[in-house]
Amino acid sequence: MMINYQAYSDIDLFQLVSKDDERAYRTLYDRYWNKLLVHAMLKLRVEEEVEEILQDIFLNLWRRRKTIQIKNTFHTYIASIVKYEILHHLARQKAKNTLEGNVSALYTLEDNTTQDWLDFEDLRDQIEASVCSLPEKCQLVFRLSREQGFTEKEIAGALHISLKTVEAHIGKALKKLRSSLTELSGVFFSLLFVFLRIV
What we know:
Layout: H1 10-17, H2 22-44, H3 47-63, H4 74-109, H5 114-132, H6 136-146, H7 152-159, H8 163-180, H9 186-196
Helix pairs in contact: 1-2, 2-3, 2-4, 3-4, 4-5, 5-8, 6-8, 7-8
């Protein structure tokens, strides 16, 4: 007897997915792909980027099917994941643009020697490595705060977490950066102070 997967609720389908049912997974994929695509396009407006984000989300959904616990509805869960990934993508994009701008600014201010350039390249790599080593949500909160200029209250609202949690994430990130970048020279530390406000 052919099972009518379309008649199943989202939660029933996901329960089947957790038991390795690929057809249930495909049904959820088809049920939500276009809805999520339209929603994400309103935020990013670049179809290739949106499709890549959604593909990653659904791929992770399958990979983590045994461990994911949905507390409310599947719709709420998947919509929250998309929102989180969009914010994460925008933060990474902003970080890239900021770093490129910093390189240009420093290159103009300094005497343009090869060593100055190499020093800043090392600094940039060190900063990015330190930030990337943070836990995923801590990293996102820090980027939204320091690179996109979100207030702590705005971050709490966007990510649906408490203000104290936001403060804890930022505090953890700053502590990590301070310990990682203790040997910076004066000009680079000043630049870091202006852009990241770590002191």
